[in-house]
Write a structure and sequence with these properties.
2 copies of one chain form a homodimer.
Chain A (H helix, E strand, L loop, with lengths): L7 E8 L10 H16 L8 E5 L3 H5 L4 H9 L6 E5 L4 H14 L5 E9 L23 H16 L3 H15 L13 H6 L2 E3 L2 E2 L8 E9 L12 E9 L13 H14 L8 E3 L5 H10 L8 H6 L16 H4 L4 H16 L13 E8 L8 E8 L8
Parallel strand pairs in A: 2-3, 2-4, 9-10
Antiparallel strand pairs in A: 1-7, 1-8, 4-7, 5-6, 8-11, 10-11
Helix pairs in contact in A: 1-3, 4-12, 6-9
């Protein structure tokens, strides 16, 4: 990808609470997030020039298509180009990437990215990791796959079940401070380890929940920003990649993630040492440990000791998933990538209340979607910067 | 949308035959279309820098997600940004629009748009026109909606059932000349009128079939074109819009279409008098009649007499749906918009064999997706030009 000719900014963000929203439609949830984002941006619906709507499960679980058009219609937004996108768990981040692309290349000045899902699985069904026609028939479903990854990481790097459990404990602690999180209760290491075994070594509290919810981000050119100075958050990097699917690579890292993170740091002109917080894809406890390594927050294989040290907790050196992450905030896959950005924007504006990372200036959001061969089908990394935040520190 | 800084070109096109592909997967069909397009473009898989994959029904009917990644994996394309898109019947055209956008704004130089669907509907189920949660529960399914539209057009403009049937007769004649079409058999007006009634006045042969198939288009910057001069096809306009959903407007036209067509003509610097052929969204016979009016091929309300005059048949003043259209070529919704462009590119290169429109220089593809209020959820118009084709005439 060439370098974009201009900066793109986050004009506004919005999200619903995550959890169970029985009786509410995808449109209803999506509209709430969009209204919040518009209000936050100080923009009218008519300002939106294009929209990308992500839903990973709306078609397969709810039988809904045209979700973007439906929710925008209810919001009074019409006539503009609307594209519905799907990239498994990276769906929301993909919508954001396309919105960013439109603004950064000057196609439009105000573009909406919204993501929504209701993840109630029909009884007895499982979320497919690969294609329904091949991998899933071979047993490739997410908990099984990530249990293998955890076993391999334990074997290769000495990672322990207590270190993995600490990810869940930390993220539930963070979630207890987040009024929009699905779970507001703390858990202990013992509770994580003693919860029902899903796929050894992953117990129930080692896995993120299925969730309902929506999140939205308005991407704007500089002249459409209401809040400048201390409130302005710039998208310093937006990178979307897919895997190389090398079946011979060891399972303890994703090549797509290393490559995407490297590109994002290069685009932003920043490195891991510049990050004040990160939101990563903790679908399983082991995932966060590997993502911390991929982001360069610690050496390869040292993600377990890193979380055990407290460095990634609020108040630590580099807080990871201050929102509670997928583990506690919840995981409607169409929305999660945008919810990560919601959290980072709140943090960079100093509006994260009891979760505030003091003087946060740079945040990174990482999320992956799907699985194929030995890699992700989609990996998205966004780096957000508040250039003025240093003045607050 | 601002004006793009450079031209984008069609580097290559490919498609499978449309019809029933029992036992073949979405990935298998999509890969075949992509291989054809790469071969046509003279490019290797590694040249592709980004890809958009459209499937309107893959998630809801086949339970597949990440279809783009799956089919590209099988093709040896990986690492690049891949986005799965859905916009109902405009899905394939939406993938093309995004690919065009990336090239025209200089984000990438070679971008792949592919669309694929298998449309076998489960017994007793119907394709939803609006949302599953609202319109469909109120009975808003496509044949019923288009029967109302046809009735209204007959009442307002004197359109006759024989004129509508002539659309099906003409498109089946065209389809009989297209080896990739689902139906290669001619039908008579009597056969159309006497086929089983679906929703009065629309009989079975007034409705497009459900189809399986895939189509792909490679969009390139000028320097990646293998064929220049007589073989080079330029994307002169690519416009995507959504409806205004005005419930009070009369049913005999779509505001989204009028607006999108107007913008496309303006972007291309061309008008209806410049068209040598058009591929339009003849999901039902009445649809083609209304689309001809919207394109300005005749006056408002005169689409019936236009088709009856033979002007839109091969050999006529302005051939419409020389491929056979949705009626005879078939309609896998993820692929149809790209199949329209496949046909136009073949025509503009003089490679359409028995369907060739002599000296074709300018072609327009129009397609719509979904329904909401009284308009489409998505309308896409592409205008393609072979600047050198005049020398062949």
């Amino acid at each position: 990808m060439t370098k974009p000719p201009r900066h793109a900014w986050v004009g506004g963000v919005g999200m619903t609470s995550f959890g169970r929203h029985v009786g509410r439609s995808l449109s209803d949830l999506g509209r709430e997030a969009c209204v919040d984002a518009l209000r936050d941006a100080g923009l009218m619906p008519a300002s939106v020039q294009a929209a990308y709507c992500g839903s990973a499960l709306g078609a397969s679980l709810q039988g809904e298509t045209g979700i973007g058009q439906s929710l925008l219609w209810e919001l009074g937004i019409h006539g503009i180009p609307v594209v519905n996108v799907e990239n498994a768990c990276a769906t929301g981040a993909t919508a954001l990437h396309l919105a960013w692309r439109d603004v950064a290349w000057g196609v439009h000045d105000v573009v909406l990215a919204v993501g929504v899902d209701k993840s109630v699985m029909p009884k007895g069904s499982v979320l497919k990791a690969g294609t329904a026609q091949l991998e899933t028939q071979l047993g490739d479903i997410f908990p099984g796959l990530f249990a293998l990854i955890a076993q391999k990481h334990m074997q290769a790097h000495g990672t322990t079940v207590r270190q993995m459990a600490q990810v869940s404990v930390k993220n539930h602690e963070h979630g207890a401070l987040n009024p929009l999180a699905q779970f507001n209760k703390r858990v202990t290491i013992e509770q994580v380890l003693e919860s029902p075994m899903v796929a050894d070594p992953l117990t129930l509290f080692s896995c993120c929940p299925n969730s309902d919810g929506a999140a939205a981000v308005l991407v704007c050119s500089a002249d459409r920003l209401r809040e400048r100075g201390a409130g302005a958050v710039r998208v310093a990097a937006s990178v979307l990649g897919s895997g190389d699917y090398d079946p011979m690579r060891d399972l303890t890292f994703w090549e797509s993630e290393l490559r995407t993170v490297r590109q994002a740091y290069a685009d932003a002109g920043l490195g891991p040492q510049d990050l004040d917080l990160a939101e990563v894809h903790d679908a399983f406890t082991i995932s966060e440990i590997i993502h911390c390594e991929a982001l360069g927050l610690c050496d390869r294989g040292q993600g377990g000791p890193l979380v055990a040290s407290g460095a990634t907790a609020l108040g630590g050196r580099i807080p990871v998933n201050p929102s509670g992450g997928l583990q506690a905030r919840g995981h409607p896959p169409g929305a999660s990538g945008l919810a990560q950005v919601f959290e980072i924007v709140m943090q960079l504006r100093g509006q994260a209340a009891r979760r505030q990372v003091d003087g946060a200036r740079v945040g990174l959001a990482q999320i992956m979607g799907g699985s194929k061969g030995n890699d992700s089908q989609a990996c998205a990394v966004h780096i957000l910067v508040n250039d003025e935040a240093a003045s607050r520190a």
